[in-house]
Design goal:
Strand content: 5-15%
Largest sheet: 4 strands, antiparallel
Shape: elongated
Number of strands: 6
Radius of gyration: 36 Å
Strand order of the largest sheet: 1-4-5-6
Number of helices: 9
């Protein structure tokens, strides 16, 4: 029953949603994905929690006003009216730095969550780009496998005709059937990959019931591989994860300072105004109190708090160094990969050009009835086009990853 209800709900959501654009562009997919992303929604919620904690950290220094109304009768020995109305104003003048340091720690957490939000959006964009490119490559791969299957089928079919004419034996025909079956299986597997790739992209866009149709083939301009030192400098200056971790270190420093100030006195003022039905010795219409509270013995609580805060700061500093080291290695690997891909892009383009020339020549011979393997050349061309797009998209993905590492992918902070 629950499965039926959930299935019906998903169907209603799918029907209520607008149909996907057809053809679908990469930018459209990115917009839809960010609107539907649980990771981005979670990051936004965590940011709001941090902002609420920041506001709570400032509550101690703010004015508190309370009213108290009490209607009661007391027996002394006769019943008497003992009702009262009081208004109390309390304000902490200073705790000599503890609250301000707590506010600084909370502000550090907000800054960290803001950069984590940037990082979550950029990670989503990278994932959507990968899914989008995977669909296009899966379509090209299917075309290549379909061409190869068609060629194998035509050879097998012609062999069957020649067998019927007594020119080939069953064994010779069977030898051509096996390659056809292999190519058929490959095409079917490629077709399944097409559906899986579309299902992944649909899920990222929040439309699991609407598989995208045609996609706009994304094109990216050529450019020389960037210099490692330049890219590294940009990454170290703008990396969201590094900035988030640095903010966490600052928050930990402020938290340690707050714990170090835990043993300091607290100076506060308390103003009261009241109206009483029965006057007693400890009831006054107006009262003002200036209080200095000095902690003397806390059973090791203050020392334990400082110890914990110091250990947390050490942990955050270790994570900061680890993030920095990982970025150095990641940037180096990506830049070197781009250098390799620059050569592969040129080789892939030359391969496509050569296959196009071969296909044109095969078409001319086919028209002259000198050759009948036009499909074989078409299959090779499609294979070369798939390989070229694969290299181009891999290069684009690496460049997008470098932009994300530098905090420049999408809208940023």
């Amino acid at each position: 029953m629950l499965g039926c209800l959930l299935g019906g709900l998903l169907a209603e959501v799918a029907l209520a949603a607008d149909p996907l654009p057809d053809p679908l562009s990469l930018e459209q997919a990115l917009v839809l994905a960010e609107e539907a992303s649980p990771a981005v929604a979670l990051s936004a919620s965590q940011l709001e929690i941090a902002r609420a904690d920041e506001r709570l950290a400032a509550v101690g220094d703010r004015l508190h006003v309370d009213a108290r109304l009490l209607a009661q009768q007391v027996r002394r020995p006769d019943w008497e009216d003992d009702s009262l109305a009081e208004v109390e104003l309390r304000h902490r003048i200073t705790d000599f730095g503890r609250t301000s340091r707590r506010q600084a720690a909370a502000a550090g957490h907000v800054a960290a969550r803001e950069w984590e939000m940037v990082d979550a959006r950029q990670r989503l964009r990278l994932e959507v780009m990968d899914a989008f490119f995977s669909v296009i490559l899966a379509d090209l791969r299917y075309l290549a496998e379909n061409e190869s299957m068609t060629v194998a089928f035509l050879r097998f079919d012609r062999a069957g005709e020649r067998r019927d004419l007594g020119m080939l034996s069953d064994i010779e025909v069977g030898e051509l059937e096996d390659p056809f079956r292999v190519e058929l299986d490959r095409r079917e597997a490629s077709d399944r990959e097409r559906r899986l790739a579309r299902a992944r992209l649909a899920r990222l866009m929040g439309r699991p019931e609407q598989l995208p149709g045609e996609l706009v083939v994304a094109e990216f301009p050529d450019s020389e591989p960037p210099e490692y030192k330049q890219v590294l400098q940009e990454v170290l200056m703008g990396n969201p994860a590094l900035k988030a971790q640095y903010a966490r270190v600052q928050a930990a420093e402020a938290r340690l300072a707050a714990e170090s100030a835990a043993g300091r006195p607290v100076l506060s003022v308390d103003l009261e105004a009241g109206k009483y039905a029965r006057v007693t010795g400890n009831r006054h219409d107006l009262r003002a109190t200036l209080e200095l509270a000095v902690p003397l013995v806390r059973g090791g609580e203050i020392a334990a708090g400082r110890q914990r805060a110091r250990a947390e700061l050490q942990a955050e500093n270790a994570l900061l160094r680890d993030t920095d080291q990982r970025l150095h290695q990641t940037v180096l690997e990506l830049v070197q990969r781009l250098e390799v891909l620059s050569t592969r892009v040129e080789s892939a383009r030359r391969r496509v050009a050569n296959r196009e020339i071969a296909l044109d020549a095969a078409r001319a011979r086919y028209d002259l009835e000198m050759q009948a393997d036009l499909g074989n050349n078409a299959a090779r061309l499609t294979e070369a086009q798939w390989n070229m797009q694969k290299v181009l998209y891999e290069r684009a993905a690496i460049r997008a990853t470098l932009d994300a590492l530098a905090g420049k992918l999408g809208a940023g902070k």
